[in-house]
Amino acid sequence: MFTKILIANRGEIAIRIIRACKEMGIATVAVYSQADKDSLHTALADQAVCVGGPRPEESYLNSQRIVSAALATGAQAIHPGYGFLSENAQFAALCRQYGIVFIGPPAQVIGEMGDKEAARRLMKQSGIPTTPGTDVLPDAEAAVQAAKEIGYPVMLKASAGGGGKGIRIVERPEDLERAFRTASAEAKNAFGDGRMYMEKYLNPVKHIEVQLLADQHGHTVCLGERECSIQRNNQKLIEESPSPGVSGEVRARLMEAAAK
């Protein structure tokens, strides 16, 4: 059991983690930007350390300063909450380098799952059913050929995508090359990575996500599924759990596949 944890976040999620730690008898360290000096999470924690200026890149996204704060206060672990550095493989690796436990997936897992095409490949290698599709496409001409094999309509997706960016649904061959180039440019601008892959476009479908919890001993459990189908511009607006659109049989298969 840890005796002290640093929370690399702010606001509501930091408060929830601090309260959970208090119930478990674990001391907490809050980090804050200059703008958040008087925020509630700094008052609730046992210690609070300023890690930089008001902009996130100066403070909550500053990996070196957060790790330094953990070392200076004797925190054995860092809980990233959500957002900010919670899905940053380099930050998870930095924690490990300095002997601090990152409460979250290992850096390798974050890296593999953060790249959608790599994650898709990993699922196929693990025997998990996947939508018909491709690996990364080198150019628009390769996309045209792949679409002939998959069959229209198809969906172009950014390998490094997120937040609904870098996605194009293409229903006709004559629209594919232009869609590929615009989606790739959008992804390049948003993520610094214009790599694209393709999947068969299925409609109507539900967007269902599952939540996993794993330990360092090889145990993985599925905590259930979330209904994420209410979206605007391919970005989720509301998540509901459990999903009213998933039957008991499908839920069991989803949870089994996810844990695998």
List the helices and strands and how they pair.
Elements: E1 4-7, H1 11-24, E2 27-33, H2 40-44, E3 47-52, H3 63-73, E4 77-79, H4 89-97, E5 101-102, H5 107-114, H6 116-125, H7 140-150, E6 154-158, E7 167-170, H8 176-191, E8 196-200, E9 208-214, E10 220-227, E11 231-232, E12 235-236, H9 248-259
Parallel strand pairs: 1-2, 1-4, 2-3, 4-5
Antiparallel strand pairs: 6-7, 6-8, 9-10, 11-12
Helix pairs in contact: 4-5, 7-8
Describe this structure in words.
It is a single chain. By secondary structure, the chain is an alpha/beta fold. The protein has 9 helices and 12 strands. Strands 3-2-1-4-5 form a 5-stranded parallel beta sheet, sandwiched between helices. Strands 7-6-8 form a 3-stranded antiparallel beta sheet, covered by helices on one side. Strand 6 (154-158) and strand 7 (167-170) form a beta hairpin. It is globular, with a radius of gyration of 21 Å.
Counting helices, strands and paired strands, the structural category is alpha/beta
Inertia-based shape: globular
- The quaternary structure here is single chain
Q: Biggest sheet: strands side by side, in what order?
A: 3-2-1-4-5
Question: Based on DSSP secondary structure assignment, what is the total number of beta strands?
Answer: 12
How far apart the termini lie comes to 27 Å
Give the uncertain stretches in residue-range form.
none
Question: Largest sheet, if any?
Answer: 5 strands, parallel
Helix content: 25-40%
Q: Which H/E pattern describes the elements?
A: EHEHEHEHEHHHEEHEEEEEH
Average pLDDT, rounded to a whole number, is 94
Which percent band covers the strand fraction? 15-25%
Helix run count: 9
Supply Rg.
Answer: 21 Å
